[in-house]
Amino acid sequence: MRIPRFLALLGCLVTLPALAQDLRPESLKLYGGTYSPDCGSPAAPRARIGADGLEIASGTRALRTRLTMDSYTSFGGAPTSPVPEGYQVEFIGDDFSLYVFQDEKGLHVPLHDYVPAAAPIVGAQAMKLRFGRCASQ
Question: Rounded to 5 degrees, what are φ and ψ at 75?
Answer without folding.
Answer: -110, 160
